[in-house]
Design a protein that fits this description.
Layout lengths: L2 E6 L9 H9 L3 H9 L3 E3 L2 E2 L11 E6 L17 E5 L3 E6 L16 H7 L24 E7 L2 H12 L4 E9 L6 E5 L2 E3 L7 E3 L7 E9 L3 E8 L6 H8 L14 H7 L6 E9 L6 E5 L4 H13 L1
Parallel strand pairs: 7-14
Antiparallel strand pairs: 1-4, 2-3, 2-4, 5-6, 6-7, 8-13, 8-14, 9-12, 10-11, 12-13, 14-15
Helix pairs in contact: 1-2
Length: about 300
């Protein structure tokens, strides 16, 4: 059911475009805000306005907010290519292939780790929202590698706290364009949604604190293979930080990668793989580590760029 909201433009938004003001006031994307304005769902002092109109402090907004999206339900069916690396009474560790999301989200109709586990007869914790049961961290749909899911309620609480307190060691390998200088370093730059509202994220003043450590493993003529350790786990963090260094992941066209290089190497997604995950086991407290080999598409591309060098 739609919601009607009426409020004045606060002083801090004076001079902003109307779509930007609506985006910030209601936590919507700029694209969604522009759609609402175009549909006549936003009035300024009782009159329809254009998305590019500048607002002034105290102007009265009448906004018809869309109903919240219905939470999607996981489809319980096996996911081809998703391997279980480890399973016990508390956790299940999977090797996630590309094209698979961690859990259902609005707008995603593809396979999910959660649905794949349920469809293969695995039990998961019931903690968390129904569409995210047992999920304690995520990988992008087109990022492959190691992911852990909680099976017991105790493991869910333990692992959620461990990720929040940054005691989990998350390591990735990324093939990035060019050669980072220095070859080893740390990117400490806040991340939030890109101002364009197009689904990208970006380094943004006032964003969420984000820290990425990287080290060059191997340098090639056109690219470098990096070992990356994350302190935080923001959406698209590695992709955003590497792009901010002007060394985007090979194949990551969303973040400015060279399509010619991607085509030459046969890469159809970002060259990024979660190679290992280590943490204290929720039941025993023992330090455990799980690893994943490169999938075929990334391995082929790496051999190609190595052959060129």
């Amino acid at each position: 059911m739609s919601e009607q909201r009426s409020l004045p433009v606060p002083d801090g938004l004076a001079g902003e475009r109307l779509d930007a003001a609506i985006s910030r006031l209601f936590g919507l994307s700029r694209t969604r805000a522009a759609e609402m304005i175009g549909a006549g769902d936003v009035l300024v002092d009782g009159t329809a306005a254009a998305k590019s109109d500048r607002v002034h402090a105290g102007a009265w907004l009448d906004v018809t907010l869309p109903p919240p999206p219905t939470a999607p339900v996981p489809v319980a069916e096996p996911v081809p290519g998703m391997r279980v690396l480890h399973e016990d009474d508390d956790i299940v560790v999977v090797d996630k292939p590309i094209g698979v999301a961690a859990h259902p989200t609005v707008g995603w109709n593809g396979p999910t780790v959660l649905g794949g586990l349920l469809g293969s007869g695995h039990r998961v914790a019931t903690s968390g929202a129904a569409e995210r049961q047992g999920i304690v961290h995520r990988l992008d749909a087109n990022t492959s590698g190691v992911m852990v899911v909680a099976k017991s309620e105790g493991a869910y609480s333990w692992l959620k706290r461990a990720f929040k307190e940054r005691t989990v060691e998350k390591r990735y390998h990324a093939l990035v364009q060019g050669h980072p200088d220095p070859l080893r370093g740390t990117v400490d730059a806040p991340i939030d949604r890109h101002p364009s509202g197009d689904g990208r994220f970006a380094v943004v003043a006032g964003g969420k604190p984000s820290v990425t450590h990287y080290d060059t493993v191997e340098a090639f003529r056109a690219a470098s293979l990096l070992d990356i350790r994350l302190e935080t786990g923001r959406t698209h963090q590695i992709r955003v930080h590497m792009a901010a260094l002007r060394h985007p992941c090979v194949g990551d066209l969303l973040y400015g990668a060279d399509p010619t290089l991607a085509a030459r190497l046969g890469v159809t997604r970002q060259w990024l793989h979660a190679v290992s995950l280590a943490f204290e086991h929720p039941a025993t407290g023992e330090w455990v580590q799980f690893t994943s080999d490169y999938p075929a598409d990334l391995d082929t591309a790496l051999n190609a760029v190595r052959g060129e060098s």
